[in-house]
Hints:
Blueprint: H1 3-6, E1 18-24, E2 33-38, E3 45-49, E4 54-55, E5 65-66, H2 71-75, E6 80-84, H3 90-93, H4 96-103, E7 107-109, H5 111-122, E8 132-134, E9 140-143, E10 146-152, E11 161-167, E12 170-174, H6 192-201, E13 205-207, H7 222-235, E14 240-243, H8 249-261, E15 265-269, H9 271-283, E16 293-294, E17 306-310
Helix pairs in contact: 5-9, 7-8
Amino acid sequence: MTSQDKSKQNKSGNSDDMVFVALGGVGEIGMNLGLYGLGSGKKRTWLAVDMGVSFAKENLPGIDAILPDISFLVENRKSLAGIVITHAHEDHFGALFDLWPQLKAPVIMSPFAAALLQAKKAGERGAPEIPITVVEQGGRHKIGPFEIEYVPMSHSIPEPNAVAIRSSAGLVVHSGDWKLDQHPVVGLPTDEARLEALGDEGVLALVCDSTNAIRDGVSPSEADVAVTLTDLIGKAKQRIIVTAFASNVARIRSVAEAARAADRSVVLVGRAMRRAVDVATEIGYLDGLPPFLDQDAFSSLPRNQVVALMTGSQ
Length: 314
């Protein structure tokens, strides 16, 4: 784009400049919050992508969660067109209940993310009622001067998305967290054909900060993990305990299928795990599996007939 092109005005009176500002999540785990601004100066309109938390380490006693600094957004909240959530991990949408009341902007997310947010709200006293616009993977939605498209990706949670952001400035792609897995067990694989088509369309910038993206090698498919779990659980003689992120519904399904093959019952330990299973069951990601038991059943089942599934893998 030439300097003359950039100076052209669109219908809203803004120039076609696009800027990116990271308020969190770059080069760190957690607090993901990226801003895309269209226009110039005080006429710039903003789109926020994700609003996550970071969890405090042992060097911060008494601190449970760390939130991104949104003072800039609060000052410019009238220019905030909306908030787009790429997926429902806490480091990408966990700050919504705390920060949304200061912004009150429209929020867009996928069906699974919306259902998980609603389930979280039921367990958090005083959580605000956030109006959500649900957009399916592959769908598009117009928000202010932006049009967003959810592009299916693979990750350790259902319905992760890259966000293709179209505006008068052109096309920008925000990757979200991703993995190139054509057999993710639950949900859609990364839509490589759509990503290629976006590249052919012409992308001004790809913004990507996915965890471990620059590490050498290839991550195994979730389907490969499922085969290994089936082998390990089938050979075990006594009780089995599996830890995983509660949001990793594909891993939950892999464990449940391996347990069924070994004639074992799956016992859920922890509120977050039960909440994730309930949401995934409601949406249909755990169809066809035997019922998951609550943790009270753990002590009453024979040792060779139980698999306990709990959070705490980090």
